[in-house]
Design brief:
Distance between the termini: 21 Å
Largest sheet: 2 strands, antiparallel
Number of strands: 2
Number of domains: 1
CATH architecture: Orthogonal Bundle
Number of helices: 8
CATH class: Mainly Alpha
Strand order of the largest sheet: 1-2
Helix content: 55-70%
CATH superfamily: Winged helix-like DNA-binding domain superfamily/Winged helix DNA-binding domain
Length: 143
């Protein structure tokens, strides 16, 4: 459903949120290990997210990644749009460019309902909310 980069981005942001709730910062090696991601790949993703304001970073010996409150308020939909764009929210199930209400593909009407459900789920789920549930061991990022 999401690109591998988007999956890693969501997992990394949730991991960072959970590990920096006390105001600390977390390094790339610990993030990569904590979410089972290749270090180089997650570093590139987090650099992009940092440029776009989804995650904050600080250089130096006591540096690392962390989330401001505004980032904790971001929805998963915000993360998906930042990494993968809007296609999951508006694209055709068959990848057609001309699919619409006027000229629907064979899956258009059913897929429209699925897209609306996914959109609603991602819009109403914030990084901070999931971070709290991870902290309480109600959700898991890794087995």
């Amino acid at each position: 459903m999401f690109s591998k980069a988007c999956e890693y981005a969501i997992r990394a942001l949730l991991f960072i949120a959970q590990k920096t709730v006390d105001g600390s910062k977390i390094g790339i090696k610990e993030i990569a290990k904590g979410i089972d991601s290749p270090e180089h790949f997650i570093a590139k993703i987090l650099q992009d997210l940092s440029r776009k304001g989804m995650v904050q970073s600080q250089k130096g010996p006591s540096g690392g990644f962390y989330l401001h409150q505004s980032s904790l308020n971001a929805s998963l939909a915000d993360v998906v749009r930042t990494i993968d764009g809007d296609s999951i929210f508006s694209g055709c199930a068959l990848g057609l460019k001309q699919c619409s209400e006027v000229k629907p593909c064979p899956l258009h009407h059913e897929f429209k309902k699925i897209r609306e459900n996914i959109s609603h789920m991602l819009q109403t789920a914030s990084l901070g909310e999931f971070s709290q549930q991870l902290e309480k061991s109600k959700l898991f990022l890794k087995r």
